[in-house]
Design a protein that fits this description.
Blueprint (H helix, E strand, L loop, with lengths): L4 H16 L4 E7 L3 E10 L2 E11 L16 H14 L6 E6 L5 E7 L8 H9 L10 E7 L4 E6 L2 E6 L5 E9 H13 L3 E7 H9 L7 E6 L4 E7 L2 E8 L3 H12 L3 H10 L7 H29 L5 E5 L8 H9 L3 E3 L13 H7 L4 H11 L1
Parallel strand pairs: 1-4, 4-10, 11-14, 14-15
Antiparallel strand pairs: 1-2, 2-3, 5-9, 6-9, 7-8, 11-12, 12-13
Helix pairs in contact: 2-4, 5-11, 6-7, 6-8, 8-9
Length: 376
């Protein structure tokens, strides 16, 4: 067996640092296109305890309405971040920050079995280049080999372990543009964050939403500007897909179709949604929902065809997941058990907050996953 001495040394260094300088509290920060969400948790007797959480809409910083998609400069984002940290009562600046899927790219690269592990460092970047639209020199590249599933069977009365998957080696590659990462680092520095770790948001979703699921699970994250799909099997991202529709598009459809002001359209979307008794409202919302679920159906079909496996559960996250009737519509279209994210269940909190946190879980899924990352 080959050992990577650098990685082993880094692991021991991290463990030593955690022992000498244990992290008591940490804040997870999810910077979206319409809002910033933060969650602060602390480690207490081996448990993750919720200390505070909060969000701030970014529309006003761009001269827009609450819920509208923005593209703010770093200094405005830092300003908003500093405010939400202060107003939520966050007491630590130890942080993990999400890298949005609009910035980072995830691809699953297949390598022929003839490629030896010792050749991965040179072969993976070459193969990944086929999927990355910018020069490799302009991105930060990280990757790991997807372990092949093992089966246990009996042979002459003894258990024998063999590799079931004899196909090509799959490698999950994450590519983040260096300028995008530098921009996030600038935002973090200006907001006074400390010892910041950065993570692609899909891994935060996995940490906050999944436990020990073995069968494939679909995480459908409906944000303001885009909807992200991730099919996860045994903790590994097997498919990642982005749809250019989100909650902001649904609100815009209500504005166009019914002539509503933006704030009224947002309120109507959140309170009535697909459960509205007004057919015109439902029809306007379905323009976006049908597009999202149509693309989702294609992604699910292609996965099941390629791997000959069924997706057993759909987890809805993101602010758009709370659209009334969206869960029922998703389950009707996909014909798969569908549930809302219950990310706050990964933390302990006062009982009187239970209903509020249950309702807010989908929106804070990424922030929770980020906070939990630094407590591990």
């Amino acid at each position: 067996m080959d050992f990577d001495l650098k990685k082993i040394a880094a692991s021991f260094k991290k463990i030593q640092s955690q022992i000498l300088h244990p992290v008591k509290s940490v804040v997870g920060i999810d910077i979206g296109s319409s809002a910033i969400k933060i969650v602060q948790v602390k480690k207490e007797a081996g448990r993750a305890v919720l200390e505070t959480y909060g969000s701030i809409a970014l529309g006003s910083y761009a001269g827009k309405e609450v819920g509208e998609v923005t593209n703010l400069p770093p200094e405005k984002i830092s300003e908003a971040l500093a405010i939400v940290l202060k107003e939520s009562g966050a007491t630590t600046r130890e942080a993990s920050v999400a890298v949005s899927s609009t910035l980072g790219l995830i691809v699953l690269v297949e390598l022929p079995n003839a490629v030896k592990p010792s050749e991965f460092n040179s072969v993976v970047p070459t193969e990944a280049r086929k999927f990355i639209p910018v020069p490799i020199s302009e991105v930060v590249l990280d990757w790991f080999v997807v372990p092949k599933r093992e089966t246990i069977y009996e042979e002459e009365g003894e258990e024998v372990v063999s590799e079931e998957e004899a196909g090509p080696t799959e490698v999950l590659v994450v590519a983040i543009p260096k300028d995008s990462l530098a921009r996030l680092q600038g935002v973090s520095e200006n907001a006074g964050l400390l010892n910041v770790e950065y993570e692609h948001e899909i891994f935060s979703h996995i940490r906050s939403n999944l436990t020990h699921e073995i069968s494939p699970v679909l995480v459908l994250d409906c944000g303001a500007s885009k909807t992200r799909l991730a099919i996860i099997e045994r903790g590994i991202v097997k498919v990642f897909h982005s749809i250019n529709r989100g909650g902001g598009d649904i609100t815009a459809a209500l504005v166009r179709g019914l002539g509503l002001a933006w704030q009224k359209a947002e309120e109507t979307k959140k309170t009535e949604g697909l459960m509205s008794k007004d057919k015109n409202i439902v029809d306007s919302i379905l323009l976006g929902v049908d597009y999202i679920l149509g693309e989702t159906s294609n992604v699910v079909f292609n996965f099941q065809k390629k791997y000959n496996k069924n997706i057993t559960k759909v987890i809805l996250s993101g602010g758009g997941a709370s659209l009334p009737g969206f869960l029922e519509k998703t389950q009707e279209v996909l014909r798969i058990e569908t549930v809302l994210s219950s990310a706050f269940n990964k933390t302990e909190s006062p009982a009187f907050l239970a209903k509020t946190l249950e309702k807010s879980s989908p929106e804070f899924s990424v922030a929770i996953g980020l906070a939990l990352k630094k407590l591990v």
